[in-house]
What does this fold into?
Amino acid sequence: MEKNLVLFVGYSNPVVVQPAPGISFEVETKTRQITIKGYDRQQVGQIAADIRKIRPPEPYHGKGIHYLGEKIRRKAGKAGKSGKK
It folds into this structure.
């Protein structure tokens, strides 16, 4: 009984991620947290990296898929630029 993971991350169509054999997804809708479970640690890490690659965290708005506990280093952008000439 495999369940696909459907991600709505700002694209025109939802992104569907199919789990490999032995991998399962759990989604906590309240906190929008995805838990990937499996017996092969390397395969779990690879699936997590593939999911993150769908919408990587970006430094200007802080949006995107990131790992739990990961700090996204924010950048100032155009408005934060100083030193006018």
User: Anything to note?
Assistant: The mean pLDDT is 88. The helical segments are 41-54. Residues 5-54 form a domain with the Outer Surface Protein A; domain 3 fold (CATH 3.90.930.12).
